[in-house]
Amino acid sequence: MNNNDVLRKLRYTFHYTDGKMMSIFKKGGLEVTKEQVVAWLKRDDDEDFVGLYDKPLAHFLNGFIIEHRGKRDGPPPVTEKTLINNTILRKIKIALSLRDEDMVAILALADLEVSKHEINAFFRKPEQNQYRKCKDQFLRNFLLGLQFKHRPEK
Fold this sequence. Notes:
The chain is an all-alpha fold. It has eight helices and no strands. Helix 2 crosses helix 4 (54-69) and helix 6 (100-109) crosses helix 8. The two termini are 22 Å apart.
């Protein structure tokens, strides 16, 4: 899934302003300007659109965790250089303190029925045979379910 889409969906779902987005990036260890945030949030066909690389999105997701769970003692979270959908899903799960049952309920809001075992497979190590790669459509449905949960009026 496109990193800019993930950022746009999280912003919309949680009603974040540009200033709040900048604050979350800063909590994740990256100083960004309002112009950068605005360019990342533009539609793909806009001439001012700028693609969001994995590392800045990882900073945002780390800041998202700190925003929702608070800063933890010890070293700051590791910022990945490359992100896959499984990592994005895991960071959102951590930030929102979701259990497998919560994730099943969120996906049900997006009309996707999955079991706890299927969700658990996304969080296993890639070398395990039960590991399952999170595809774009699954992540998209999860973000849509989050939107339905946190913005039920839409």
